[in-house]
Write a structure and sequence with these properties.
Layout: H1 3-18, E1 22-27, E2 30-36, E3 39-46, E4 51-59, H2 66-78, H3 80-83, E5 87-90, E6 97-104, H4 110-132
Antiparallel strand pairs: 1-2, 2-3, 3-4, 4-6, 5-6
Length: 159
């Protein structure tokens, strides 16, 4: 069985475990998982790299909090040991903040993939709430408050 066929079977097995509203397969290597009206995760598999990329749109910060939110995003990216490798990026100069993760797939473990996707979705929901509230404010010293960043160790992606 090819890697793509194994991954397709693994993706089919996710539904009963994750219980999303919808899992859609768009091509042999592309899927989307809709958890609720706000949480959509796009997945794309690169068979040459044996890597599954996860992506979720988070929204845009209010203009008056743009700089502090982008600063917080860069700090968050630097804390890769705490986040398990999740990174944040803009999809365009004036675009949305995106959450990204790349998972090396040497094995097709349904439980592992469920855990990664669920934790990724939880972190995306936390960032989405922060952005819906306008973004992140700097404290009086002009620093991102460390308790603002979603660094729950229980949802760190560890492989």
């Amino acid at each position: 069985m090819s890697d793509i066929e194994q991954l397709q079977l693994t993706m089919k097995a996710l539904g009963p475990i994750l219980q999303p509203e919808l899992i859609s397969q768009h091509s042999a290597t592309q899927w989307s998982i809709l958890f609720d009206e706000d949480t959509l995760i796009e997945l794309e598999y690169d068979p040459q790299l044996k890597q599954l990329s996860l992506c979720s749109a988070l929204g845009s910060p209010a203009q008056d909090r743009l700089l502090s939110t982008l600063q917080a995003s860069l700090v968050y990216n630097f804390l890769w040991k705490n986040t398990g490798g999740i990174v944040l990026a803009l999809n365009a100069p004036d675009g949305e903040l995106m959450q990204l993760y790349q998972l090396a797939l040497d094995e097709y473990d349904t439980q592992l993939l469920c855990s990664v996707i669920a934790n990724f979705a939880e972190k995306a929901a936390t960032w989405r709430k922060l952005l819906a509230a306008g973004g992140i404010n700097l404290d009086d010293a002009g620093v991102v408050p460390s308790d603002t960043l979603p660094l729950n160790p229980d949802t760190a992606i560890r492989v």
